[in-house]
Amino acid sequence: VMNVVKITRDLIKAPKVNGGVYTVILDPQLSGIFAHEAFGHLSEADFVYENPQACEMMKLGRRFGPDILDIIDDGSSVGENGFTAYDDEGVKGEKTYLIKNGLLVGRLHSRETAERMEEKPT
């Protein structure tokens, strides 16, 4: 605990980083958490459906990165984080591409938002 306190105190004094584009290196677990927080929540269809600005920003087909970028929500991988045979609405867990080849191709849906947006529940 004391080590965490020391690190926190040291970081309070750290120089601020200016906004911009930076190259970063993340381990697999941290990159997954980062993608979840930065993009996963943004992909939730209830947020998109009820927000005209988000609807425009999250338009299917929009480019979010280079061709090598894929972001996948995969509830079908047994033993992995996020595995679910069926979710709380009875939807079978499966592999859903949110970004494929750098393009937005999917969203995270409930049955309600999927019906409203005429897309498949995820």
UniProtKB/TrEMBL annotation:
Alphabetical GO biological process terms: proteolysis
InterPro entries xref list: Metalloprtase-TldD/E_C (IPR045569), Peptidase_U62_metallo (IPR051463), TldD/PmbA_sf (IPR036059)
Transmembrane residue ranges: none
GO cellular component, one term: cytosol
Gene Ontology molecular function, alphabetical: metallopeptidase activity
Pfam families according to UniProt: PmbA_TldD_3rd (PF19289)
SUPFAM superfamilies recorded: Putative modulator of DNA gyrase, PmbA/TldD (SSF111283)
Location of the Metalloprotease TldD/E C-terminal domain: 20-122
Residues forming coiled coils: none
Family: Belongs to the peptidase U62 family.
Protein's recorded name: Metalloprotease TldD/E C-terminal domain-containing protein
Lineage: unclassified sequences, metagenomes, ecological metagenomes
